[in-house]
Amino acid sequence: DVREDAEFALSAGFVFRRHHTTADAAIGVLADGRTPFAFPGATPARDLWETNVRVVSKRANGLGLILRGFVGTGESNGFNPADTEQFRKVTRYGGDLRVIQGPVRFETFAKFNDWGPYDYHRDFNFTFPVQLMGDVSWSLGTPEWFPGVPGTRFGVRGTWRTLDRHSPRFCPGFSTGPGGSQVCNPLAPGDNGREWEIRTYLHIGL
Question: Could you tell me if 139 and 107 are in contact, meaning their C-beta atoms sit under 8 angstroms apart?
Answer without folding.
Answer: no
